[in-house]
């Protein structure tokens, strides 16, 4: 029996080594993409547009990027564009006549529409959005009187820089024959926000932060060349003096996509529904690529 046992020991050792190699290979296959992704994201922090400086008395924009979401907050109208021509009052359920800013973001369509609160988050939705290209949409919410939330930055652009940012936003939206964004009827978190059909597919390398980063890069703002991770779009933007500190005015801190829309819009609950009005003609005088931007 002892001879048989000694004879089987080499086989057992070979079997154990084989199992260890198989386990290491499986772990490597699972971890390697994450390691590569992390390294690429790390290298992506290398900035571009290093000669950027805020334009004195320029057009002020706000960039937000919390733990899961990022958006561009732009003045509702100026000499470059009047956003109400693209997002008219008839697109929103409440009275939005007092809006001062429009917040535009882009992301996974199913996650946006099926996750009004974090309690509604489903693991399969998150995993599919991260690891498989999914259809996207754009979310637009109107800001009224607001406190600059945590994880936000301000900067100012020249008219030409802002025009390039506008082109980025409009180029994301699917437009109808009249040049108006295609609204997703019936989809909203509250009385002052709406969803629109968008171009592009969402995945781990093309996130809402990536979308914001590409817009800022196109506008000439100093930004990392690849910004898929939360907060990466804020890396090179200076903190604003009036930025709300962490923990201050917690009622305004976004806790979900719907919460962000409601808290920042400043529209009271119970605002009466505004019936849809017929679309108005959109004035265009300058063609930029495939989209039209008012001058």
Please describe the structure with a list of short key phrases separated by commas or semicolons.
about 20% strand; alpha+beta; disordered C terminus; 2 domains; six-stranded antiparallel β-sheet; about 300 residues; two-stranded antiparallel sheet
Blueprint of the fold:
Elements (H helix, E strand, L loop, with lengths): L1 H42 L3 E2 L10 E7 L4 E6 L25 E8 H6 L8 H9 L2 E10 L8 E6 L1 H14 L20 E10 L5 H12 L3 E2 L32 H9 L20 E3 L2 E3 L2
Antiparallel strand pairs: 1-8, 2-3, 2-6, 3-4, 4-5, 5-7, 9-10
Helix pairs in contact: 4-5
Descriptive notes:
By secondary structure, the chain is an alpha+beta fold. It folds into 2 domains: 1-43; 50-293, no CATH class. Helices cover 31% and strands 19% of the residues. It has 6 helices and 10 strands; from the N terminus they run H-E-E-E-E-H-H-E-E-H-E-H-E-H-E-E. It has helices spanning 2-43, 109-114, 123-131, 159-172, 208-219, 257-265; strands spanning 47-48, 59-65, 70-75, 101-108, 134-143, 152-157, 193-202, 223-224, 286-288, 291-293. It has a 6-stranded antiparallel beta sheet, sandwiched between helices. A two-stranded antiparallel ribbon has the order 1-8. Strands 9-10 form a two-stranded antiparallel ribbon. The longest helix is centred in the first third of the chain and has 42 residues, at 2-43.
Beta-strand residue percentage = 15-25%
Helix content: 25-40%
Q: Using DSSP, what is the number of strands?
A: 10
Alpha plus pi helix count: 6
Kindly give the count of domains.
2
Give the H and E element order. Answer: HEEEEHHEEHEHEHEE
Which stretches of 5+ consecutive residues score pLDDT under 50?
244-295
- Overall shape: it is globular
Strand order of the largest sheet: 6-2-3-4-5-7
Terminal CA distance reads 93 Å
In terms of structural class, how would the helical and strand content be classed? Answer: alpha+beta
Report the major sheet: 6 strands, antiparallel
Average pLDDT number: 77
Instruction: From the alpha carbons, calculate the radius of gyration and give it in angstroms.
Output: 24 Å
């Amino acid at each position: 029996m002892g001879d048989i046992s000694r004879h089987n020991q080499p086989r057992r050792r070979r079997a154990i080594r084989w199992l260890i190699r198989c386990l290491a290979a499986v772990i490597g296959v699972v971890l390697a993409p994450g390691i590569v992704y992390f390294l690429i994201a790390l290298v992506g922090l290398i900035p571009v547009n290093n000669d950027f400086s805020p334009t004195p008395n320029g057009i002020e924009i706000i960039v937000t990027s919390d733990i899961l979401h990022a958006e561009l907050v732009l003045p509702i109208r100026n000499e470059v564009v009047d956003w109400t021509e693209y997002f008219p009052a008839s697109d929103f359920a409440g009275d939005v006549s007092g809006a001062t800013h429009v917040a535009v973001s882009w992301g996974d369509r199913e996650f946006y529409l099926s996750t009004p609160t974090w309690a509604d988050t489903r693991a399969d939705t998150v995993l599919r959005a991260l690891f498989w290209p999914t259809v996207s949409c754009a979310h637009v919410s109107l800001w009224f009187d607001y406190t600059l939330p945590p994880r936000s930055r301000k900067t100012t652009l020249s008219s030409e820089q802002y025009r390039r940012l506008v082109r980025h936003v409009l180029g994301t939206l699917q437009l109808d024959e009249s040049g108006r964004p295609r609204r997703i009827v019936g989809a909203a978190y509250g009385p002052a926000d709406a969803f629109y059909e968008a171009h592009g597919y969402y995945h781990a390398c093309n996130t809402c932060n990536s979308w914001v980063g590409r817009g800022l890069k196109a506008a000439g703002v100093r930004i990392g060349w690849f910004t898929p991770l939360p907060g990466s779009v804020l890396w090179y933007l200076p903190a604003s003096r009036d930025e709300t500190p962490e923990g201050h005015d917690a009622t305004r801190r976004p806790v979900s996509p719907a919460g962000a829309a409601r808290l920042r819009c400043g529209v009271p609950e119970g605002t009466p529904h505004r019936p849809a009005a017929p679309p108005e003609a959109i004035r265009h005088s300058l063609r930029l690529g495939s989209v039209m931007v008012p001058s």
